Amino acid sequence: MDTQIRAYKFLLRPTTRQVQALGEMLRDHCSLYNGALQERRDAYRHVSRTSIKYGMQSAQLKEIRAFDPERQGRWSFSSQQTTLRRLDKAMQAFFRRVKAGQTPGYPRFRGQNWFDTVEFPKDGDGVRWDSLPGHATRVRFQGVGHVKVNQHRPVVGRVKTVSVKREGRRWFVVLTAEQAKAEPLAPTGSVVGIDLGIANFLADSNGEFVANPRFGRENTEALAEAQRQLSAFPRVRRDKRTKKHRRAVEKVAALHGTVRRQRLDHAHKTALTLVRQHDLIAHEKLTIGNMVRAPKPKPDPEQPGVFLPNGAAAKSGLNRSISDAGWGVFLQILASKAESAGRTIIAVDPRNTSRTCPECGHVCGENRTTQAKFHCVGCGHLAHADTVGAINVLRAGLVRCDANSA
């Protein structure tokens, strides 16, 4: 029987003492992560260039727990191993980027505010998911106790891993469960191409549009005011910050969290609508990281030390709009939902999709007279530019689909 792994995220309702214990668990795992990273750095800087692996550090855990029973010995051994594996994956990714000639980005030490998750690799080993019909759902963490869970939907299948995550002042439990693979949705006989944009979140090849909600822009004033209040405080060590300072930090984090959840909700609903209505969905293969990259400076050849205008101000506004739209998150969600529903997703080359006339095939930059208007200089075809782009994306996707099936 085919199976799949599905994640569930539920809000925790810890008591005051449990909040303190959960915070101490994050703190101690963060300390373990930073200590293991420091050991690797020191060993590599040694004359012998010694390389420390996960197995060597995992073997030291027993001694570490015995040496510091108050901070390290009270937590799950398996969760500490997972934290060490987390560092090992970061180191492997670093060396992989070095080998590929990319910007390496050496793993950095984690502050307590940046270390927000502890993972337990197996239900029943340091953690126990307790969900019985007719009883309040709880999850038991070693060193913390039984914490109430706001379970808003049933968990289907066998729970495999459990993680505890802190987001601002709220705590969540994240489960992964192994379950039978869902049956594909019934075929609809419909195919569609979509063109992601700024004026409209997306336009499809049928001439329909999904409005861009611009959640970030809607909260710009509130975010700016919260940032101004935060910047009024001097930069001090975390343990010397005042209560007002902490409240200002939490307010900024809460606003960013609200925007993030709004984007996720919009992406889930839009993707679900597309997956339910169409068997094949074609979209542009976007390299968003390159699209939001700042333009390179232009030195003035006649005046050393002076730079010519490069459109950085206008590009920064476009970059904010692209980031606010959340194309990357939407495409990831769309691919995940399509896989579960048995739908086909095809990413095509975006070059000239908005410059090609769908009627005569004429390719010219002058065909797109404005951001929204497409007027072919060859045959005079007039249409919305985003709709034209979606039609060309669909045609390219169908050609690629036929080539793959041949």
Low-confidence residue ranges: none
**Largest sheet, strands/sense/barrel:** 7 strands, antiparallel
Strands across the major sheet, in which order? 2-6-7-1-5-4-3
H-E order = EHHHHEEEEEEEEEHHHEHEEHHEEEH
The mean pLDDT is 90
C-alpha Rg (nearest Å): 26 Å
Count the strands?
A: 16
Strand content: 15-25%
What is the terminal separation in angstroms?
29 Å
Structural category? alpha+beta
Overall structural domain count: 2
| Helix content, binned percent | 40-55%
Shape: globular
Number of helices: 11
Question: How would you describe the overall organization of this protein?
Answer:
The protein has 406 residues and is of the alpha+beta class. The chain has two domains: 3-180, no CATH class; 191-405, no CATH class. Helices cover 42% and strands 21% of the residues. It contains eleven helices and 16 strands. The chain has helices at residues 16-45, 54-59, 61-67, 77-99, 215-218, 220-231, 243-277, 288-291, 312-325, 327-341, 385-405; strands at residues 3-13, 117-120, 127-130, 138-141, 145-150, 158-167, 170-180, 191-196, 200-204, 209-211, 280-284, 298-299, 307-308, 344-348, 373-375, 382-384. The strands form four sheets. It has a seven-stranded antiparallel beta sheet. A five-stranded mixed beta sheet has the order 10-9-8-11-14. Strand 8 and strand 9 (200-204) form a beta hairpin. Helix 1 (16-45) crosses helix 4 (77-99), helix 6 (220-231) packs antiparallel against helix 7 (243-277) and helix 7 crosses helix 10. The chain is globular, with a radius of gyration of 26 Å. The mean pLDDT is 90.
